[in-house]
């Protein structure tokens, strides 16, 4: 069966990459490619919507897809846990609603890095995250960093561990607290995407680092999400939900 995909944000870098992948795949078909001027009704009739737009535009796209009974893969950053709760409520209350899969990062390596950080988090009381992206990325912290911090916080809570030691939280230079963990964001020309999780304990430190060197690292994750979305149910967060890594409650 051919899966018809509507790409919202088709003129952006991720949208162009997704469009090329869809057109090259035997089991996928481009239903519509939307730019910022296209009406949301162009999504109608698709088997899956891929949202790779802008944080300010993403909510309307997701809500339209949910109300229209179309599964949606959300690759747009800026979705906090609180905002996702609102989408969970919308899905529950909307007859015929289909799956919503939030994917902070389509890179398999990045997803594994987050999984390793969540595994390690309960063994270290001092944890910070440093994430760096290209100068054009408008949101901070990144969705990947938020997801990583939230999962580390959940892992510590599930193990009965206290919040991490984050002194001097009144100093903005010490990072934005996400799930009690300081997150530092860099936006610089010459970078694509990097994340380091630093964990400190008595007499030792551990670093879990991932670097994105090319947008080709997203290809396998995009294809996996598009192919699995039509059969998925409910709201899930992270590509790990499709890789069966067992991370988090969602």
UniProtKB/TrEMBL annotation:
A Pfam match: DapB_C
Sequence positions that bind (S)-2,3,4,5-tetrahydrodipicolinate: 134, 143-144
Record has NADP as a keyword: yes
Quote the protein name from its UniProt record: 4-hydroxy-tetrahydrodipicolinate reductase
Q: Which GO terms describe its molecular function?
A: 4-hydroxy-tetrahydrodipicolinate reductase; NAD binding; NADP binding; oxidoreductase activity, acting on CH or CH2 groups, NAD or NADP as acceptor
Q: How does it assemble?
A: Homotetramer.
Q: Which InterPro entries match?
A: DapB_C, DapB_N, DapB_N_CS, DHDPR_bac, NAD(P)-bd_dom_sf
Q: In which pathway does it act?
A: Amino-acid biosynthesis; L-lysine biosynthesis via DAP pathway; (S)-tetrahydrodipicolinate from L-aspartate: step 4/4
What EC number(s) has UniProt assigned to this enzyme? 1.17.1.8
- What taxonomic classification does the UniProt entry list for its organism? Bacteria, Bacillati, Actinomycetota, Actinomycetes, Micrococcales
Q: Which organism is it from?
A: Agromyces mediolanus (Corynebacterium mediolanum)
Annotated NAD(+) binding sites? 9-14, 75-77, 103-106
Q: Which SUPFAM superfamilies match?
A: Glyceraldehyde-3-phosphate dehydrogenase-like, C-terminal domain, NAD(P)-binding Rossmann-fold domains
Record-linked CDD domains: DHDPR_N
Protein family: Belongs to the DapB family.
Reaction(s) the record says it catalyses: (S)-2,3,4,5-tetrahydrodipicolinate + NADP(+) + H2O = (2S,4S)-4-hydroxy-2,3,4,5-tetrahydrodipicolinate + NADPH + H(+); (S)-2,3,4,5-tetrahydrodipicolinate + NAD(+) + H2O = (2S,4S)-4-hydroxy-2,3,4,5-tetrahydrodipicolinate + NADH + H(+)
List the keywords (alphabetical): Amino-acid biosynthesis, Cytoplasm, Diaminopimelate biosynthesis, Lysine biosynthesis, NAD, NADP, Oxidoreductase
